[in-house]
Each structure stands twice: as structure tokens, then as C-alpha cells.
Design goal:
It is built from eleven helices and seven strands. With about 270 residues, it is of the alpha/beta class. The protein has a seven-stranded mixed beta sheet, with helices on both faces. Helix 1 packs across helix 11. It starts with a strand and ends with a helix.
Length: about 270
């Protein structure tokens, strides 16, 4: 059985659309018949809250429990860690996750703990999507080691690319030293407003600066008030506003993501048998 592809949504800047993209891309991939697990790896727990689990009494275990169980070598059955919402499974997170990176700093092979913890889930899904925390710390390193590939959301606002070079250097270091199979699926431009010259300029700037070395997704995610409103009601933007422009964009993004893997599979199929 083929194991899940693990994709991390990664950017050390906050407010770029990582959480919305994680939930919307996952739900859209599920609508295409894929088995999806979302992992909230951010102490803010916004992905968890946005999918209807604001009340911590609604789930017994979180990603912190998953990691501690891995460290203590006492893992539970994988189903005990997950909750379900909108046709996807979720490993929730909350503020208890804060400070775990300090605990991990003294652990042997600390960079691989998250990867080892996720290994039991991989046979049961087609895609695992990780909503990473907005920082460059040990959480980020664990995410880069656990992932097969990355999607980097970049907001179409001034200073959008600030820090992106630092992130790319961190990714290259992780690839060289810890995870040689790591790749970048692409940069995703989010929160665009095609009515403004500024948004068009930022989009062009990102494509010109990085497009020669990294794929920049053709799909751009438009700014949409309903995307922000959705989290207040514990729903994904896909469910809250199914006919919105942003929902249509995320559906198009899922097709691009699927086409990446279809292309890889076709190329592998063409490899001569030695």
C-alpha cells in the first residue's frame, strides 16, 4: 500500500494564509476522493478551532500527546488521536503545545520526533497536511524533516518576500543535513486583490524573484472577508462560503497539487527497468 504524501504549509511569517490553505486544500482534496489527515502543529490551534473544535473538551488527545507518547515509546492506536470534520481527519492542537520545543531540545534525535510520531498514520491516508507554526525553531525543523514536500504561502502585501530567503536557506539546510527527499511543491500567492495595482505588482515581483528556481502556483488565492468570518463559526471557508471566489481558487489549487503527483507518477512509470 502506498503511504501518504506529507505536505507542510510553511512560512515563518504569520497571517499569510497557512491555516486557511491547510483546511481548504485538505477539504478540496477530500472532495476529489483522497483520504486526508490534517495536523495542527501550531500552539495557537487556529486550524483546530476553525474546524469546530474550539472547546478542548471535544477531543481527548492533541498533537502534544502524540509527541510525548512517541518520546515515551507508548503510542496509542492512531485513531485515538484524531477527530473528524468536513470529510477530513484532524490531529488537534492547543496552547499546551507551547514550550514543547524547549523540552525537545534535550532529546536524542530531536529533529525526527515528529516524523516518527506521524509514521503510524501514513498507511491510512493519501495526504497528510501540516499547518506549521509561524517561526523558525525546532517545531519548524521537525516539520521539515517529517514532510515530503512544502507549500509556501506568501501574502500579496508589501514586504511579502521579507524573510523568504531565510526560510529557503533553512529548507536547504534541512534537505542537505536531515531530509534529502524534501522538495518544494511551490509558492502560493495569497490574499490577492486584482483590483489594485499593488497586488498585481507583488504577484509579479514574487514570480520574477523566485519563479526561475521554484514553482509558483498558477492559482492565486483572493482576499475574501468570508474566509476570516468562517473561523468564528467553527467552519472551514469551503463550507461557510462554498460559492465564494476563494473556494473556487482552492479547488483549482487542489487540481494543481494533484497534477504534481500525477506528473511524478508518470515519470516514475517511464523509468526503464534495470
Amino acid at each position: 500500500m502506498q503511504e501518504a504524501k506529507t505536505i507542510a504549509l510553511c512560512n515563518q511569517k504569520g497571517g499569510v494564509g497557512k491555516t486557511a490553505t491547510t483546511s481548504c486544500l485538505g477539504i478540496s482534496l477530500a472532495a476529489n476522493g483522497k483520504r486526508i489527515l490534517l495536523v495542527d502543529f501550531d500552539p495557537q490551534g487556529n486550524l483546530t478551532k476553525g474546524l469546530g473544535y474550539r472547546d478542548r473538551s471535544k477531543y481527548r488527545y492533541s498533537v502534544k500527546d502524540l509527541i510525548f507518547d512517541e518520546l515515551n515509546e507508548t503510542p496509542k492506536d492512531f485513531q485515538e488521536y484524531i477527530v473528524s470534520s468536513e470529510n477530513v481527519d484532524l490531529i488537534p492542537a492547543n496552547i499546551d503545545l507551547a514550550g514543547l520545543d524547549i523540552h525537545l531540545s534535550s532529546v536524542i534525535s530531536r529533529e525526527t520526533v515528529f516524523k516518527r510520531a506521524l509514521s503510524q498514520f501514513k498507511p491510512h491516508y493519501d495526504y497528510i497536511l501540516i499547518d506549521s507554526n509561524p517561526a523558525l525553531n525546532l517545531f519548524t525543523i521537525n516539520t521539515l524533516v517529517a514532510a515530503n514536500s512544502l507549500i509556501i504561502p506568501v501574502q500579496a502585501e508589501p514586504y511579502a518576500t521579507d524573510g523568504l530567503s531565510d526560510l529557503l536557506r533553512t529548507i536547504q539546510t534541512a534537505k542537505r543535513q536531515l531530509n534529502p527527499e524534501l522538495s518544494i511543491d511551490g509558492i502560493l500567492i495569497t490574499m490577492t486583490d486584482q483590483r489594485t495595482n499593488l497586488s498585481k505588482h507583488i504577484s509579479s515581483e514574487v514570480r520574477n524573484a523566485f519563479g526561475n528556481q521554484i514553482k509558483v502556483f498558477h492559482t492565486e488565492i483572493p482576499r475574501c472577508v468570508k474566509t476570516a468570518e468562517a473561523s468564528l463559526y467553527g467552519q472551514s471557508p469551503m463550507s461557510y462560503a462554498p460559492n465564494s471566489e476563494s473556494t473556487r481558487a482552492y479547488n483549482q489549487l487542489s487540481k494543481e497539487v494533484l497534477s504534481i503527483d500525477d506528473g511524478i507518477a508518470k515519470n516514475q512509470h517511464k523509468q526503464p527497468i534495470r
